[in-house]
Amino acid sequence: MASTRILRINGEPKPIEVSDDTPLLWVLRDVLGMTGTKFGCGLAQCGACTVHVDGQAVRSCVLPVAGLNGKNITTIEAAAKSEVGARVQRAWLDLEVVQCGYCQSGQIMSATALLEKTPQPSDADIDAAMSGNICRCGTYVRVRQAIKQAASAGKVRS
Amino acid sequence: MNSVADTTPGTVSRRGLLKGAFAGSFVLAFHLPSGAASEPEVAAGKLDGNFVPNAFIRIDRTGTTTLVMPQVEMGQGIYTSIAMILAEELDADFSRVVLRHAPPDEKHYANPTFGVQVTGNSNSIRAFWTPLRSAGASARATLVQAAAARWNVAAGECSTASGHVIHGPSGRKLAYGALAEAAAALAPVKNAPLKEPSRFTLVGKPLKRLDTPGKVNGAAVFGIDTMLPGMKFATVAASPVVGGKVRRVDEQAARKVPGVRKVVVLDDLVACIADHMWAAKKGLEALKTDWDDGPNGQVSTQQMWDELRAASRQEGVLAKSVGDTSKARGMRHEAAYELPLLAHATMEPMNCTARVNADGCEIWIGTQVIARVQQTVAALLRMPAEKVTVHNHLLGGGFGRRLEPDMALTAVRVAQQYPGVPVKVVWTREEDIQQDIYRPMYRDIVSATLVDGRIDSFDYKVCGSSILARWLPPAFQKGIDIDAVDSAVDMPYDLPNLRVAYVRSEPKAVRTGFWRGVGCNNNVFAIECFMDELARKAGKDPVAFRAAMLGGNPRLKAALELAAQKSGWGQPTGKRSGRGVCAQPSFGSFMATVVEAEVDTQGEVKVHRVTCAVDTGIAVNPDTIVAQLEGGLIFGLSAALYGNISVKNGRIEQSNFHDYQVLRMNQVPRIDVHLIRSGEAPGGIGETGTTAAPPALRNAIFAATGVALARLPIDRKLLAAKKA
After folding, report:
1. Which B residues 228-287 touch A at CB under 8 Å?
2. Which candidate, B520, B382, B373, B403, places its Cα nearest to that of B472?
3. 55-84 of B, contacting A, C-beta below 8 A
4. What pLDDT score does A2 carry?
5. CB-based burial of residue A56 (10 Å sphere; 0-12 exposed, 13-18 middle, 19+ buried)?
6. Which end of chain B, C or N, has fewer beta carbons within 10 A?
7. Burial of B335 (0-12, 13-18, 19+ CB in 10 A)
8. CB spacing of B212 vs A138 below 8 angstroms
9. A138 shares contact with chain B (CB less than 8 Å)
10. Alpha helix locations (H) across B446-582?
11. Angle CA(B228)–CA(A101)–CA(B349) in degrees, nearest 5?
12. Which among B214, B2, B215, B202 is positioned nearest to B98, based on CA atoms?
């Protein structure tokens, strides 16, 4: 059943009309043209579709829009607007984490959510938060280093 | 400001096929049409005051320097490396370069090694190193001529830096932009001298990549991100069995799904076109398709192995012969190694956007073979190639999967049913895994003899599919697939007697294609695993055993010794822990890799550490090289630990990342890469880590447990500790 609803995405109201079971991923990409969030598996196996809903990292490919009225949705396009997100992006560029880049929106959103919750994560924290994000190019070594660098930069600041 | 822009139609200029310097193990048995080595082209007129001395460089009046990329960016950093080479010889202001994807144009952008427009085989720098340098140098020299004429001075009194020509004696300066129009009126200088490497200001530095900023903020545009006014979205299901056909389709339920615009039924695939991917996917799922499986409906993996093993009993075609292995002396050891079908599983699933009209077709895609996409689409539509416009994009992983145009042809066949409208056809992950063009199965048989701890004779037979016979027929001559025997015919060891043979055996029910590491994967695996078994038989340390036979390959010997040293080779390891080594000269780079791994009593393998030492000649961007090795090693470890595609009733059994597993963050070892600086010509690096990791890991397991695994993926049951 198609319903009109207003989603709050990156602080802006976006009216959309899709069936209730439509995953947020396809609303973002195909309906709104926000292609920063990526499709990788459709089964919440790869993490490429990671966005934040009320600050929590979620896989948008299995998240029907029906449950999202009134929630704050943040995508990669607005990651830089948060202090943590900006720190993460800076570390990503400093350490040249990226290779093909396709998984990196998801990696950055997962990493940002991790650091919001756990400002000084251990290796075990990083494993737990990031093992849902697959990178076929194998950037994991640098992803881990960049998370630690972003965490350190936050420590210095405070 | 650096940026990567969309393709614009290629600049028209006359140019023969490039023929660049090439160093490396992939030696082509056929001859390219000869053309002068990287002769810069005479520009066709002024072109609106822009200076366009060749196919790679365009400078406008504002000084914006557009560099056209002949090779595609799929994470290997090649856009930045190519830009660095061009900008180096051009003495451009690197902060102002703009990059463009090359259009389909084999006259100007063909890979000099292959004669077609292709990015693959870790060959971009090797193939384009000299042509790009010459192009940059020619452009620079022409700008200097223009400035010298403007100032009425001798060109020899002028120098260049950061996008300016400078007249030393008078201190006068002119920006390239100011000279563009004047330079455009001159014939580009031929045979302009190249810079001495000691004077490089960009090449050799770990400069930040030009494409990465857009990849951390969602701005980068991959093929799958194409968005066009009025675009529709589609997904497809091709026959799950190769050779199968649609028998009957019930479209009723599919047509009722909200958002579905059209159901497409072709002879061998069904598709659903809709307002967005979710509707397309639901529509496709609602289609009730009855497939006629065709001739391959009973094929199984077991049958495929039976057939390959039977084929491997043939003599094969002789690919290399040194001395006479039939006169072998010494203690004999034999083994056979088997490698499975592998999927590519790029993070960006297969996709292509196509708009088909009566008189033309437009394509948006990320592809390693843009001209082949244009040609095959044109052939499909029975149109001249000029009527097919192809826009390339950044690739969300290539790994050889995007060396095929099939996803473009599928998209065109679907979009043809919805003419005049751009249709973005995106494969589900399931379709991506099950309609892959797989890395072939291989069975490699080795038989060697030892005399006084050294190899006296080495008999090697590769059995598997010939990808080149299909992909580049001129490269398949006299029954030899030169990719299938790559790194076998050019083994680095001092071998008095060597025989390499190839048996072509094509599998039923699957299509085979190039996968990162290509033919070197199977040969480096078999040879390096076997080397460890020989070392044990000879009572020698695996590193020392190899080093003693690398007299003819000092670069590889140096890499081996450095890797051993840096990895702590020889130091004690824990119980059921061990180190394994792999030495390989593949892709024109000389690399040794040591893996340190531990096997628990259940047979689970934990990779603790990987150390590699590589001599890759002149490193254009050393950071890129380290990144490619880190990534390539992880790609190879994934394959060794998990990679397996199996067939049952003609169908691929795997479908997504839950059953086609790959390495994740929590499984990644410590990786140390040591670059050996040599002034040699650049080697290839994109695939070098991938071929090295599996044999080094398998050898570590051999050291840890004594189990000589002969097949991949690693079988944990074989590694479980025996009950005492």
Report:
1. 233, 258-259, 275-279, 281
2. B403
3. 73-77
4. 73
5. exposed
6. C
7. middle
8. no
9. yes
10. 468-471, 518-538, 542-547, 554-567
11. 60
12. B2
Here the tokens at position B238 are: 């091709």
Rounded-to-integer distance, Cα B124 and Cα A132, Å? 33
CA distances from B102 to A114, B6, B370 (A): 40, 9, 9
**Residue B28 confidence (pLDDT) above 90:** no
Does any CB of chain B come closer than 8 Å to the CB of residue A149?
A: no
Rounded to whole angstroms, the maximal C-alpha distance in chain A is 51
**Stretch 325-364 of chain B: residues touching chain A, C-beta under 8 Å:** 345-349
Residue B43 has pLDDT above 60, yes or no: no
CA–CA distances in Å: residue B170 to residues B152, B160, B162, B351, B514: 12, 14, 18, 58, 57
User: Does residue B590 or residue B42 have the better pLDDT?
Assistant: B590
The angle subtended at Cα B36 by Cα B8 and Cα B376, nearest 5°, is 40
| CA separation for the pair B326, B498 (Å, rounded) | 10
* Other beta carbons less than 10 A from residue A34's beta carbon: 21
Pick the residue from chain A with its C-alpha nearest to B80: A99
Do the beta carbons of residue B575 and residue B600 sit within 8 Å? no
Q: What is the largest CA-CA distance in chain B?
A: 91
- What chain B residue is nearest to A22 in terms of C-alpha separation? B278
Nearest to B218 among A77, A128, A130 (CB): A77
Q: Tell me the residues of chain A between 102 and 121 that have a Cβ less than 8 Å away from chain B.
A: 102-105, 108
Q: In this structure, what is the dihedral angle of CA atoms A75, A76, A79, A85, given to the nearest 10 degrees?
A: 120
Residue B168 DSSP SS3: coil
pLDDT at B38 over 60: no
**B630/A29 Cβ within 8 A:** no
* Token output for B718: 């074989």
Give the list of residues 6+ apart from residue B300 with CB closer than 8 angstroms, or none.
B647, B648, B649
Residue B618 tokens, joined = 């002149």
State the Cα–Cα distance between residues B530 and B258, nearest whole angstrom: 59
- Which site among B257, B275, B278 would you substitute to test the A interface, given the most A Cβ atoms closer than 10 Å to its Cβ? B278
Question: What percent of chain A has a predicted confidence (pLDDT) above 70?
Answer: 97
Distance from C-alpha of B677 to C-alpha of B692, rounded to nearest angstrom: 20
What pLDDT tens digit does each residue of chain A (158 aa) get? 677 999 999 999 999 999 999 999 999 999 999 999 999 999 999 999 999 999 999 999 999 999 899 999 999 999 999 999 999 999 999 999 999 999 999 999 999 999 999 999 999 999 999 999 999 999 999 999 999 999 999 986 55
